[in-house]
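Appendix B: a complete holo record

For completeness, this appendix reproduces one full record from the ligand-bound portion of the collection. The bound molecule is adenosine-5'-triphosphate. The inputs are the chain sequence and the ligand SMILES; the output is the full three-dimensional arrangement of the complex, encoded as structure tokens. No fields have been trimmed.
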Amino acid sequence: MASGYRNGSAKGGVKVDRPLSVNSNIRSSSIKSKPSPSPYNSHGLRRSSPGSLGGSAGPVKDDSAVSGRVRVAVRLRPRNAEELVADADFADCVELQPELKRLKLRKNNWDSDTYEFDEVLTEFASQKRVYEVVAKPVVESVLDGYNGTVMAYGQTGTGKTFTLGRLGEEDTADRGIMVRSMEDILADISPETDSVSVSYLQLYMETIQDLLDPANDNIPIVEDPKTGDVSLPGATQVEIRDQQSFVELLRLGEAHRFAANTKLNTESSRSHAILMVHVKRSVKGRDSFLSSDNENTSHLVKTLKPPLLRKGKLVVVDLAGSERIDKSGSEGHTLEEAKSINLSLSALGKCINALAENSAHVPVRDSKLTRLLRDSFGGTARTSLVVTIGPSPRHRGETASTIMFGQRAMKVENMVRIKEEFDYKSLARRLDIQLDKLIAENERQQKAFEDEIGRITLDAQNRISAAERSHADALEKERLKYQRDYMESIKKLEEQWAIEKQKRSNNQNGVGTKDGCLDKTCNGEDTAVSISEEVAEVKKELENELRLKKAAEEEVNNLKSQLAQWKRSEAAGNAEIIKLRKMLEDEAHQKMKLEEEITILKSQLLQLSFEAEETRRSLDRGGPGKIFNGLDSLVTQVRHPHARDPGNGHKASIAKLFEQVGLQKILSLLESEDADVRIHAVKVVANLAAEEANQEKIVEAGGLTSLLMLLSSSEDEMIRRVAAGAIANLAMNEKNQELIMAQGGINLLSMTAADAEDPQTLRMVAGAIANLCGNDKLQTKLRGEGGIKALLGMVRCGHPDVLAQVARGIANFAKCESRASTQGAKTGKSLLIDDGALPWIVQNANNEASPIRRHIELALCHLAQHEVNAKDMISGGALWELVRISRDCSREDIRNLAHRTLTSSPTFQAELRRLRIEC
Ligand SMILES: Nc1ncnc2c1ncn2[C@@H]1O[C@H](COP(=O)(O)OP(=O)(O)OP(=O)(O)O)[C@@H](O)[C@H]1O
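The structure of the chain with adenosine-5'-triphosphate bound, as generated:
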């Protein structure tokens, strides 16, 4: 409202309290002038009567706001019974000059102030006239799509409710503005395209209550920050279809309104009542282009525009009475009510003053009343105010204050604006109907088309069958004709033959005349010759026919065999296609399997490259043989106590020792009585075992067995540590791995692991087991003999070197398992999971030591490649780690592997979807 109020200007040039002499006869009288006509001093209404507040009407442009001053009428109530008695000896405090639209407020018997209003309604003014001048122009505006307000202000008991809310059920002449407004609205709208709905509320003690649903008693005011429009979406809105239901609603609302019996009014309203009438109208004429009868759909689409919807809102406000608390005799709760009413009315007064004076600040937020009326004063609505006054000189002060309120309100300029918007809903509805029609039409055409095709096909088929039939008939006729001709010619020939035969026998019987005999004989011979020629010819023809028939039969047979062959080859072709298709499917299947294998091989390659890198780093640092670095000097001390040969001489001296002493001898020293010698011997063996070239010889010579013996029998931890280191070196070779397992190595290593405290011993043991974990054939045995548990048991020491070996062992094991699962050699979930490795894996998946982290990341990827592990991994929290690896792992290849693994597993995918995690 603040902006709305601020926009108000005093264009009307209202001069308040500036005395203006209008009649020299009236001494000391003064006129409080009516504002000079503003260029926009009309309501801009087409239908308002000349007597309306609107005055001369001018059209309002649809799309722009125009200035519209608040119109104010004053209405005087007739003396009531009490006043007729109490004020019998006194003149009224006001004198009205309706024709001049002036009101004189008596100061005393000889002096008065004169005020001009837009309309002055005497105590004799009918309700009809009051409606027509105060409200009708506003109602018409609302019907045109503007917001409008009609409000009554005045001292309690002066006729506000009488003016606005009278239902007029006993005497229709008494109908007030609310009832008459709805009558006009319902008469003007079209029920097919327009709608009217109402809300009825009261503002009581700063809370807004629904008069149509009193339980709804704390309705918030919602202000659109863009448009400044105020609405009460929490209020009940009832659609009105007829006047009777509206009157019922008003009666219902009135029954819920707070009222009290005060000294000044037995039925005094203690709340501000607000009736909101929402009028929605479709603007005709603009949407004719949407006619669904239009056959030409392209034309329809080209001209498609949404229809316009005009949304006018009429707000009728029956304010609670302004009153002097002492006069109204309010006390207790009624006193509180009175204070609240006065507070809100005074907030309204302040806002109107600020607007009238074009003040920069309008205190609109001081009360709910002013917030509700922000559009009515200084906003976009057409506003008409009726100030009601009583005649009693005893209430002159209140009457004067009401008049001043009205005078100031006359200075408030609103910028009235039409509320018009595109009716997309209606457009959508229409388009839906249009679309349905088009679809139905399309279906109809489609059906007609299909019917036509069917008809043509049937017709063609009939014609073909008819042609085939007539062709067959013709052929048959032809055949019969030829057959008949043939039979006839045979018959003729036979007859001829019989005649000739007869003739000949006759001739033979007539022998006696020599010449005649001779002649006859001669003739008979000629005839016989010609007949036999003819017979020969017929025979020839017959043979020819038979040959042709045979040829035709052969042709038919030939065609038949061709057809059979063609059918055979078609069947063969189909079989070939099926075969090829099957091959194609097999190929696709094979390809898929190969792709899977490639993925696994890639992951294994990754593992191997990682291990190679680790080994290289380890070698750079001194490697697993680091603890043996001192051996050279130790051996030298045993064998050559004075020698000092560090660095490069180390390997050379061991090799020399190997050559000089011989392997058997060195190995036998492992069982020496002398503990020192045993220590040095085991170190020498360990050093030799670090060289791949020596490993086979050591094993062949029984070195592995001796080293394993040392693990089980030696009390000395150093010996056990070095022996374990040597075994770890030997365990790098696949053949040795099997031997170690066969000789119960895993048990011995497990026992050593369980007893040892020294991290370096544990590191050696873990390294040995980790190497064994990398052997595909030993998986089940290693696990069965407790290898995984031994490995996991060593994590208790917490030393990063030990943890790195454990992680390597787990990664090796997971890799082998993954390989076995892919090849179908293993079903069921991972033995690592069965042995409880998952929690440690998950816990260390993000270990800050990169060797541990990398091994575990790889182990997780291997485990995740098999759907059978997915559920345990999810419940164990491994999914989060996989997601982390797929996002954050610094190694792109591992990152990609994790991502591939996650996206190819349906179980992981389902869980990720459930958790709404993008991967
Ligand atoms: N113009 C009028 N002609 C006849 N009677 C009237 C007129 N105006 C008011 N009255 C009567 O005066 C009394 C008080 O009127 P009304 O209740 O409308 O006053 P109000 O201003 O609404 O009072 P409040 O503010 O206390 O609610 C009613 O009995 C009403 O019938």
